[in-house]
Specification:
- 20% of the residues lie in helices and 33% in strands.
- By secondary structure, the protein is an alpha+beta fold.
- The chain folds into two domains: 2-36; 66-160, Beta Barrel (Thrombin, subunit H), CATH 2.40.10.
- Strand 1 and strand 2 (6-7) form a beta hairpin.
- Mean pLDDT is 78; it is low at 51-56.
Length: 162
């Protein structure tokens, strides 16, 4: 039998090796692409213990902020950046202020990078908010990003972050 000018009868003993090689290659590619995908942060990190309100305020330079931070219920957000290789990353807003957000994500992001953030439950008419990563800290279970707004978003957009 000759198909495409190849004598298939002579090549028949090599067929199991070719099929096995192709299947092994497909399996390696599947494992490579699934291992490459970043893990998603499915549950919000536990809230901080508010502690004793009677403690004196820490007046170090790092804690003198132009706007006060507010804790609250973690809000799920979607992050977009070229660093994510065309994918979206999900995270949780841990605290917020008019100057920025603290977000928990599953993978680190370089300090100084700009990221687009949007509340997951936001309507499609709400624009993405651009933030600059000011700090990235590994807590063991997730990464905490300290983000500053490039420009302060409107109040109705800020409310979506909690």
């Amino acid at each position: 039998m000759r198909l495409l000018a190849v004598d298939w009868v002579r090549l028949q003993p090599y067929l199991p090796f070719v099929v096995g090689g192709v299947l092994a290659l497909v399996l390696v590619l599947i494992v490579y692409f699934f291992k490459r995908r970043p893990k998603r942060l499915l549950m919000p990190p536990p809230a901080k213990n508010p502690g004793n309100w009677e403690e004196p305020a820490d007046d170090t330079y790092a804690n003198r902020r132009s706007s006060s931070r507010r804790d609250g219920t973690p809000v799920r957000v979607v992050l977009s950046s070229p660093a994510f290789r065309g994918q979206m990353e999900t995270g949780w807003v841990l605290d917020r202020s008019t100057g920025g957000l603290r977000i928990a994500v599953s993978q680190p992001i370089a300090v100084g990078a700009t990221v687009q953030v949007r509340a997951e439950n936001a309507p499609s008419t709400i624009p993405w908010v651009t933030v600059v990563i000011r700090s990235c800290r590994d807590t063991g279970k997730h990464q905490e990003l300290g983000c500053a707004f490039e420009t302060t978003p409107p109040w109705n957009v800020l409310l979506l972050f909690g």
